[in-house]
Design goal:
Layout lengths: L10 E4 L2 E10 L5 E7 L8 E5 H6 L3 E3 L16 H13 L19 H11 L5 E4 L7 H14 L6 E5 L4 H12 L4 E3 L1 H10 L12 E5 H4 L2 H9 L3 E6 L16 H9 L3 E7 L8 H11 L12 H4 L3 E2 L7 H7 L14 H11 L3 E2 L5 E2 L1
Parallel strand pairs: 6-11, 6-12, 7-9, 7-10, 8-9, 10-11
Antiparallel strand pairs: 1-2, 1-5, 2-3, 3-4, 13-14
Helix pairs in contact: 3-4, 4-5
Length: about 375
Amino acid sequence: MPEAVLAPGARIECRSAEWLVRGLGRSSDGQQVVDVVGVSPFLREKEARFLVEVERAAGSFKVLQPEDTELVCDPSPRYRDSLLFIEAHLRRSVPTDAALVVGHRAAMDALPYQLLPAAKALAMPRQRLLIADAVGLGKTLECGILCSELIRRGRGRRLLVVTSKSMLVQFQKEFWTRFSIPLVRLDSVGIQRIREQIPGNQNPFHTFDKTIVSVDTLKNDREYRVYLDNASWDIIVIDECQNVAERASGTMRSQRSRLAERLATRSETLILLSATPHDGKPESFASLMTMLDPTAIADPSHYSKDDIRDLYVRRFRKDVIADLRNSVKERDSADVECVASEREERVFALLKDLKLPDSDGKVCA
């Protein structure tokens, strides 16, 4: 009998457990590396990576032959267990086309125009796209649709969202309640806590697969550059990306722009979000396009829309008004004047003079 082929989809026995091969690769010194997921009961869904030569030398590596599969009778009523087994495998099969599979089934009333960015990105060899729809059209939802599609295709296990501090909670809530994508919120204190709990040679960004971090937390080169340069993600999302565009050149470039340029190389998939990506300066907008595709623009001062047409989606309310009218009722509003009561006036007076502490502990009016 010929030797079984080690390829994605094959099953192996390694370290007294059974694994399903997800992918093959090479280590930095040229050794064959196999990425696997557990099949045995105690290791089900656990991911691991083995050096094939090392495991073979230890005598704990074997590629299973499909011909050796033993068929057994299914005693369950109406072959229920077999049907559930087949259904489970069908649900885990990876889609091979660009059609939307799960994104449009999120906990939302998805409008047709909100599905376009995901469909456009899935048709690209690499999903690197600027979603620049106007305020209120649902850029976060469009991003979530695309991310859920990539996760369904096995290309979104590790996800990093970088946004402003004020948007952390909202972005985290939208991804969890709409798409069931859990994002662990990290700040400088949280990262330091992780560093205290792991060995000194470990990367804190490897602790959680799906995280959301403030751009102001990561922009500190002295603290996090080494960790970022040695980490990678399947998907990186940069929200409010106008804040990381280049406003100057050379040593005058901001920490945020240097951070974004570094992150752009740490993932195959890069999603930029902004309602106002262009500040009127072609060089600034070109810096965002260069993050998506370094070869798209030859001269940052002189380029045309045709050079970058495939790298962005930009719609205003007038462009999607037909979808909105079919799904969203027109708002009928009117101003109504009424006289406040004495008790209401006292409440208004109290609110007028109320002082609350801001997030830094300073008292503001």
